[in-house]
């Protein structure tokens, strides 16, 4: 699963959101792929738990992922 951590009204997030939505539309029927959006402003505890400090942030959580203090998902930087 890819999770897009965003902050409303953040210019970089506003620029990235349509591209992320397009991927979701294109791969909607591809069941192995799951996409999610997470409003980091609405959930500061989770934002801090995953150490989200830059917006937008895109992280990959492989199937079977178990969250631990040292496992924060795989940050996408491409």
What does this structure look like?
Helix content is 28%, strand content 21%. The chain is built from 2 helices and 4 strands, in the order βαβαββ. It has a 4-stranded mixed sheet, covered by helices on one side. Strand 1 (2-6), helix 1 (11-26) and strand 2 (35-39) form a beta-alpha-beta unit. It starts with a strand and ends with a strand.
Largest sheet: 4 strands, mixed
Tally of strands: 4
Radius of gyration: 13 Å
- Main structural class: alpha+beta
Helical residues, percent = 25-40%
End-to-end separation: 16 Å
Strand order of the largest sheet: 2-1-3-4
Uncertain regions spanning at least 5 consecutive residues: none
Proportion of residues in extended strands: 15-25%
The succession of helices and strands, N to C, reads EHEHEE
The DSSP helix count reads: 2
Oligomeric state of the chains? single chain
Shape: globular
